[in-house]
Every structure is written in C-alpha cells, then in structure tokens.
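Reviewer 2 asked us to include a model.

Predict the structure of this chain.
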Amino acid sequence: MIGKICLITGATSGIGLKTAEALAKMGATTIIVGRNKDKCLKIVNKIKDISNNPDVNYFTADLSSLEKIQHLAQAVKKHYYHLDILINNVGAKFVKRQESVDGYEMTFALNHLGPFLLTHLLLEALRKSTGGRIINVSSGAHTGCPQIDFNDLQSRHGYVGKKAYALSKLANISFTYELARRLKVTSITANSLHPGGVATNFCKNNGLLSWGKHLLAHLLARNLVGPVEGARTSIYLASSPEVNGANGKYFINLKPASSSSISYDPQTAQHLWQVSLKLTGLASS
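Predicted model (structure tokens):
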C-alpha cells in the first residue's frame, strides 16, 4: 500500500480505527475523519506510533451536515492531488427520531446521504488514481427493509430506530450497485460489505441500555466479533490484489455474498440516486 492514499470516515474508534491502523502499517498514506479535533489528533499520533508511518493525517467534519461535507471534500482535494481508497465507514443507529442540521432524519442523513455526497465530491480525486476503490460499509441489517418507501424516506410516520437503520443500510448497498454500474467505463470500483456483529461503541449514543441490548442480541446469535475481526473485510477490499476489478459486489467475511432481492432492483436504485441528488443539492429540485 506504499504510495496509496486512503481516506476512512468514522475512523476514531471501532472498525474504522482498526482499518486505519492496518492500512497505515501497510505503508499507506492514511487519512482519518472524525468529529472531534482533539480525539482525531490523539488517534493520529497513536497510529503513527504503532505503524511507524509518519504519513497519517486527519480532517474533522460532522458527516450528517451537507455543508461540512462540502468543506471536508474541498480540504481533502486541496491537500491531496489524488485519492486511491475511500472507505465510507461512519454510521449510527438512533432509538429516537432526530433531524440533521439540514432537516433530514438523522439515520438517513448520516448513513446514506453523507456517504453519497462525499463520494460524489471525491470522484474527481479518485479518477486521478490508477485504480480507485470505493468501499461502503453496510450491514446485514439491510434485510430488515423489504422495500424503500420513497413517500417516507425521512421516517416521519411511526419512527422505529431499527427500521430506519435497515433502510439506511439498504440504501448503502443500492447506492453501491448503481454507482458501480455508472463507473464501469472508469478504473474506479465500488463495493459494499457487512462487517458482522461487532463489539464496538455502536449504539452507545442511545445509552448503555441500548448498547447492552445490541451486544446481547449478537451474543445470543453467536455472531459477535471484535473490531479487529470486524475490520477484516474493509481492509481486504482496500488492499488486496485479489479484488482488482471487482465491482458492484457485496462482501461478507472476505467473500462475495448475496444481498437482499430489493437491493438488486435497478429501478429502485435509479430512483434513490435521483432523490439523493436532490436532497444533497447535487441536482436542482
């Protein structure tokens, strides 16, 4: 990975952090994105120490804010001529309905609209790579959304955190498949993945009870793994020559897998794409 420039969102903890550490150890120029400057600086210094790699940097941004994402993309392109790897890892679940600064339901804003906008804004930098890779961290939870209700993308009617999260993760995969179709004529690839049930701070934003329920559910299902194990597929998709040219696939445990049937529907994907363009301001309404 020497000479490769990698950007990972949500990289100050959990699988994002372990992904950043691994790529830095491989020699990649590693850029982490987080919300808190002090925490980012602490993590950057930690990664430099354990990897013996001085080429570790950070940017701060609230990835639920469209304006902050615009500023982030501008800063990245100002400091780096090109980008080889973009890992959209940031994500969260919210028990109670919240809205982003732009007035969008927070789960949908952070988990889908944020990666959608950031990816579009960094495509120019990825095109300057000899083989750019876009990696979207989704979840097996996407199967909990049998279809996308375009009349209620903001979950205003009968909000349930689990359903909103499933919708956002389905949107990740649908976006990845449509993006891959549109990138076929380029050297850039786009793939998504399910990291497994990972013991991290995920769900802790909803309180210790919610976090405990999240961990217990995965323990009972016997599929709970640590962040190192949870990061394996992200690291693999970012670094392995085995996936050169792999495009428009969904991975679990380093292997291509099947996602839900609705995720493969091209009409749904194209509709979501157009709606997302409007919601992020990339296209006029």
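The domain at 5-279 is CATH 3.40.50.720 (Rossmann fold). The chain has nine helices and ten strands. We have added this to the supplementary material.
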